[in-house]
Design brief:
alpha+beta, Topoisomerase I, Chain A, domain 3, 4 domains, four-stranded mixed sheet, DNA-binding, DNA topoisomerase I, topoisomerase
Length: about 550
DNA sequence: CGACGGGACTCAGAAATGTACAC
DNA sequence: AGTGTACATTTCTGAGTCCCGTC
């Protein structure tokens, strides 16, 4: 099959790569003349470039971002830089800018698009499909593979996560002159759009990207890469889980090792040992250092500061409790109270001694030191492998504990979701509570109440039927009892299902299951579980997910053990 | 060594879009 | 049968990890 093909030289990722280059998003279309921008109450015709940037802001007027001072200031600074000198002379304060007409124009345009007839919508869809067909695929080693992101990112205002110092800055339009193309020498080299040139065309088969450009906000590279369904990505994914499975064999030894190191005479060793304990037990990320002022202030394990933990010798009947409170990746809050071993607690007290809240907790440590240590313990081992390992092993254990072979498929799926949820909680994968949550919960509660009444009514009817049977002792009365029993049973089952649904919904409101499912759980565990318990794979993986995990679906039977 | 910057890749939740289902 | 809405899926792009070379 396609998962077992010729091996390449070390570091070589492909022998053939052919594609069309990125699809460039359409150029800016000027506003109609009757849509005006006002400055200080007076209409002001803007130059094309200035107008385009104004529309970026106008489009976001409903968004919370535009209420933030940093966003406003960054936007206004960048906007002014692009203005003509005449405009600069006039437009001095954002507060005097009135974008409301422009805003309304785009709101209306959006509604108009939604109100389009079926035929018109189909036509638009067909056009999009054509672009996808033309630009969305490449040829890699003879196979036609789907590309992940084949469009350049449109210009707009930068939206960072959390308290990002650069929010609102102008993200510039990507032109062919900014783009580096990567393909094979003998392939049909993509044509730049008419009148344009590529920045560079290179033939580097040691990397997997098809095109790249430098983004102007953080000055970092962006890439066009393959879709997760591709062979290249699939193999990499498989490899990731194989490394995590290797950890399974040595993790006990590693745990013994770091426990012993809690007592080390060397401070650095003790810090490594405690940090590793956190990474293993709590599935924390490694925590690279970040450049101050360039990004939101977030941390991982190695970059934890004294202010991010509190030590409680006793708390709620537990001993040696560490209270974590910090912002992690994407500024998602990590809040947890954990009872730790006495030695860990003692070490933490020591690490925090004579430090200010803003000081590093692990002052002798960073991710490079930690990962070098891990590499010595196992080939390919780095901090993130612990997350993959602990996530996958947790799923496997939870599935074992929760699955009842006698259950219906629906009940088994609930168990699966519970197991998935345990992992999402471990990895702190959160989502914002859906806007419609309260409402839909109320509706569900109403259904439950109605169902309860129906159950009570059925109970009453059954009682009556039984009494009648006592009385008459005839076949008709007996049949009626059976009928009422059946009805009651069905209603009770429906009620139970609704209750389960409500529990599930409540437990899930702030938890995002997708990330762990897609990135941390060895798909072979899930596939084996499906096969073992007769659950169709489609029930747990949708089409995209089945495509991504094709490698696993191909190779896994019900006996698979992580 | 270790700091630093560049580079390539994975992983992250929000937002946009599509679909199914209730009314 | 048509329409609105809730939920599922897909897209988007920002935010991490980790490695490498240089000084």
């Amino acid at each position: 099959s396609r998962w077992e093909e010729e091996k390449k030289e070390d570091g070589v990722k492909w022998t053939q790569l052919e594609h069309r280059g990125p699809y460039f998003v359409p150029l800016y279309e000027p506003l109609p003349d009757d849509v005006q921008f006002y400055y200080d109450g007076k209409p002001l015709k803007l130059s094309l470039a200035t107008e385009e940037i104004a529309t970026f802001y106008a489009k976001m007027l409903d968004h919370e971002y535009t209420t933030k001072e940093i966003f406003q200031n960054n936007f206004f600074n960048d906007w002014r830089k692009e203005m003509t000198s005449t405009e600069q002379d006039v437009i001095k304060e954002l507060d005097k800018c009135d974008f409301s007409e422009i805003h309304k124009y785009f709101v209306d345009k959006n509604e108009a698009r939604k109100a389009l007839s079926k035929e018109e919508k189909q036509k638009l869809k067909a056009e999009a499909d054509k672009i996808q067909e033309e630009y969305g695929y490449c040829i890699l080693d003879g196979h036609r593979e789907k590309i992940g992101n084949f469009k350049t990112e449109p210009p707009g205002l930068f939206r960072g996560r959390g308290n990002h110092p650069k929010m609102g800055m102008l993200k510039k339009r990507i032109m062919p002159e900014d783009v580096v193309i990567n393909c094979s020498k003998d392939s049909k080299i993509p044509e730049p759009p008419e009148g344009h040139k590529w920045k560079e065309v290179r033939f580097d088969n040691t990397v997997t990207w098809l095109a790249s450009w430098t983004e102007n906000i953080q000055n970092t590279l962006k890439y066009i890469m393959l879709n997760p369904s591709s062979k290249l990505k699939g193999e990499k994914d498989w490899q990731k889980y194989e490394v995590a499975r290797c950890l399974k064999d040595v993790v006990h030894k590693i745990r013994d090792g770091y426990r012993a190191d809690w007592k080390s005479k060397e401070m650095k060793k003790r810090q490594i040992a405690v940090a590793l304990y956190f990474i293993d037990k709590l599935a924390l990320r490694a925590g690279n250092e970040k450049e101050e002022g360039e990004t939101a202030d977030t941390v991982g394990c190695c970059s934890l500061r004294v202010e991010h933990i509190k030590l409680h010798p006793k708390l709620d009947g537990q001993e040696h409790v560490v209270e974590f409170d910090f912002l992690g990746k994407d500024s998602i809050r990590y809040y947890n109270k954990v009872s730790v071993e006495k030695l860990v607690f003692k070490n933490l007290q020591l690490f925090m001694k004579n430090k200010d809240p803003g000081d590093d907790l692990f002052d002798r440590l960073n991710t490079v030191i930690l990962n070098k240590h891990l590499q010595k313990l196992m080939d390919g081992l780095s901090a993130k492998v612990f997350r993959t390992y602990n996530a996958s092993i947790t799923l496997q254990e939870q599935l074992k504990a929760l699955t009842n072979p006698e259950d219906s498929v629906a009940a088994k799926l609930l168990s699966y979701n519970r197991a998935n949820r345990a992992v999402a909680i471990l990895c702190n994968h959160q989502r914002s509570i859906p806007k419609t949550f309260e409402k839909s919960m109320q509706i569900l509660q109403m259904k439950i109440d109605t169902k309860k009444q129906e159950v009570e009514k059925a109970q009453q009817e059954l009682k009556e039927a039984e009494e009648e049977f006592e009385d008459k002792k005839d076949a008709k009365a007996e049949a009626n009892v059976e009928k009422k029993k059946k009805l009651l049973k069905r209603l009770e089952e429906q009620l139970a299902r609704l209750n389960v649904q409500a529990t599930d919904k409540e437990e899930n409101k702030q938890i995002a299951l997708g990330t762990s499912k897609l990135n941390y759980l060895d798909p072979r565990i899930s596939i084996a579980w499906c096969k073992k318990f007769g659950v169709p794979i489609e029930k747990i993986y949708n089409k995209t997910q089945r495509e991504k995990f094709a490698w696993a679906i191909d190779m896994t039977n019900e006996d698979f053990e992580f």
